Amino acid sequence: MDNFKLYKGKLTIALSGELDHATAPPLRNEIDILLNKESYGQVIFDMSDLRFMDSTGVGLILGRYKLLKNKNKLLLIKSPQDAVDKVLRVSGIYSIIPRI
Amino acid sequence: MNEVRNMDSITITLKAMPVNESFARSLIAAYASRENPTINVISDIKTAISEAVTNAIIHGYNGDQEQDIYIKASIKEKVLRVSVSDRGTGIPNIIEAMNDFYTTRPSEERSGLGFTIMGSFMDTLEVNSNLGEGTTITMTKKLA
């Protein structure tokens, strides 16, 4: 995770690089610390700089979705690159997490 | 003799370490690139290899990084054939394991989509597994 931005209740978290079984655990920790610390109404995963993601990333996103749903917060996915978008489409994740 | 001479193949052995996932997928993608596939084809291959190697690390060897993963790849008539093997625990029920969202590790946030993605991103997918002996995942993809 490179950075995050909180503006008018929207917490935007920028994901970058490659998201797989090797990189997911530290990223998950960073995101969860942020989600527990900040005050927000909705969370946006900005994926425009994420070059690669496999099903480990789907697990990470679904985990955060469940966590946020329990807090009545909305999760959105923003600007995935084509390769990442294909993984998300095949996973069916867009049926529960909207893409913007 | 001609068949042997024309057989374009590579074999690599990797430790079952998560850090090797990116190396494995990049290596096979680089190997496949000699046939000038599209970026989408390369992306599909990288994703499928990543899933297969992750499977071997997590399920085959239960995270034991001392174990080895064996990858073989060949190109024949512009078709990539790649197999990823472990000599780990094996899969008790392959049909069950290939179901969408099936995972033995929900607490670890595994999505249970590894085989779904391998099957969707590659042209063919074959899984051979024997309990206590290991698993071999073989996939093919047309490169051009």
Walkthrough of the structure:
The complex is a heterodimer of chains A (100) and B (144). Chain A is built from 3 helices and 4 strands. Chain A has helices spanning 24-37, 55-70, 82-91; strands at 3-7, 10-19, 42-53, 74-78. Chain A has a 4-stranded mixed sheet. In chain A, strand 3, helix 2 and strand 4 (74-78) form a beta-alpha-beta unit. The radius of gyration of chain A is 12 Å and the shape is globular. In chain A, 37% of the residues are buried. Chain B is an alpha+beta fold and 144 residues long. Chain B has a 5-stranded antiparallel sheet with strand order 1-2-3-5-4, covered by helices on one side. In chain B, 40% of the residues are buried. Chain A binds chain B through residues 18, 20-22, 28, 52, 54-56, 58-60, 62-63, 82-83, 86-87, 90-91, and chain B through 18-19, 21-22, 25, 40, 43-44, 46-47, 50-51, 54, 57-58, 108-114, 116-117, 120-121.
Provide mean pLDDT of chain A, rounded: 94
Reported for the largest beta sheet of chain A, the result is: 4 strands, mixed
Order of helices and strands of chain A: EEHEHEH
Regions with little confidence, pLDDT below 50 for 5+ residues of chain B:
none
Our count of helices of chain B gives: 5
Number of DSSP strand runs of chain B:
5
**Number of H- or I-type helical stretches of chain A:** 3
